[in-house]
Structure of DUF3828 domain-containing protein:
Amino acid sequence: MLALALTAAAPAAAHQETRAAGESVPTRSGSPDSAVDRVADFYGTYIDVVQDRGRGDLTDGLREHYLTEKLRTELDAWERDHRADGVLRSREVPSSWRVTYDESAMGHTWTTVRLSWGDADQQRHTYLTVRSDLATKRISGIETGPAPADG
């Protein structure tokens, strides 16, 4: 059995991409048990879909899966008032995003979502404070937030 396990593992190691010393390899990971990872998963997928297809059935399905019903109702009202996407707080699609854990208390966790706009030479950022319910891992609040002290 041990020989079989070693044989099966060897091809995977042989196919690993080699990098120059000091060069970082981009990686992504996450867990469906982490409210923070779920916020990152939602924003990454939502932005991809809006960029590729615009608003439609798929974005509505993502909202239904990841957001509480109460938040979806609040976003509908916000979007009518502002004529913009309430998840992104914009009429445009950001060029990139970053999600950072902020704090947890009283059955919720808060994350800061940094949305980047424009190209690398003239990039600007906006920030959102996103609240998630720890029991359901669903996003229950999205507010425009201040830039964190560490930028």
